[in-house]
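Subject: design request, 202 residues
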C-alpha cells in the first residue's frame, strides 16, 4: 500500500503543483474533481458545478487580481471558498462575488485574513491532498470518488453527498494523516436509503 500511496502522491504533485489547491483528480473522466461514472450528482449538476468554479475564479481575478489568493470549489451547487485575503473587506468582496454566480445555492467562506500563502506552502498542501485521497482509496469500506478534497494551509476540507457513516469514517482517516492541521466537513449528509436509491445497480 505504501507504493500505491507514493505513486498517487507523486502523480498529484506533478499534475497540480502549478495551480496550487485544485480538486484532486485520479483516474477516469473527471468533472469538478469526481469521477463521472461514480459521481452522486446528476450530470447536469456536475456541469453546473464546473461552470460555477470557472465563472467565480474569472470574476475574482477580474475584480481583485493578485490582491487575494482564492480557490473556489463547488459541489452540488455549494461553493467552498478557500485561500487568503489581506483584509476583511477583500474577504467579504470575494464572498459577494461567488454568491452572485448563477446557480450557487450556498457559499461556505473559509478564506483566511492573512498574508498570501507562498508556493512552498501550496506544494505541501498538494502532497497532503494526495495522501488523503490515497488513504480513502485504501479504505475498503468507502467509495473514494464520493469525496471532493480541498487542502489549504494544511487544513483539509471534505465535500460530497455522503451518509453519516461515510462522513465520520472519512473524517477519521483525514485526521490521521501526517501534516493535517484541521478537518472541515462541508458535506451534504444523506440517508442510507437515499444512498441505495442513487447507487447504480450492478
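Subject: RE: design request

Done. Sequence follows.
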Amino acid at each position: 500500500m505504501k507504493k500505491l500511496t507514493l505513486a498517487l502522491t507523486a502523480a498529484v504533485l506533478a499534475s497540480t503543483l502549478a495551480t496550487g489547491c485544485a480538486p484532486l483528480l485520479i483516474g477516469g473522466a473527471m468533472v469538478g474533481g469526481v469521477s463521472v461514472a461514480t459521481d452522486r450528482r446528476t450530470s447536469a449538476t456536475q456541469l453546473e458545478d464546473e461552470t460555477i468554479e470557472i465563472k467565480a475564479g474569472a470574476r475574482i481575478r477580474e475584480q481583485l487580481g493578485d490582491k487575494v489568493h482564492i480557490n473556489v470549489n463547488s459541489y452540488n451547487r455549494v461553493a467552498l471558498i478557500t485561500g487568503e485575503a489581506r483584509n476583511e473587506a477583500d474577504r467579504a468582496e470575494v464572498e459577494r462575488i461567488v454568491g452572485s454566480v448563477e446557480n450557487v445555492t450556498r457559499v461556505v467562506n473559509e478564506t483566511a485574513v492573512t498574508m498570501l500563502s507562498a508556493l512552498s506552502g501550496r506544494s505541501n498542501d498538494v502532497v497532503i491532498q494526495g495522501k488523503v485521497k490515497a488513504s480513502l482509496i485504501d479504505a475498503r469500506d468507502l467509495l473514494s470518488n464520493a469525496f471532493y478534497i480541498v487542502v489549504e494551509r494544511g487544513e483539509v476540507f471534505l465535500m460530497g453527498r455522503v451518509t453519516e457513516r461515510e462522513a465520520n469514517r472519512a473524517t477519521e482517516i483525514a485526521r490521521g494523516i501526517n501534516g493535517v492541521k484541521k478537518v472541515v466537513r462541508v458535506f451534504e449528509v444523506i440517508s442510507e436509503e437515499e444512498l441505495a436509491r442513487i447507487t447504480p445497480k450492478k
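The domain at 43-113 is CATH 3.30.1340.30 (Histidine-containing Protein; Chain: A;).
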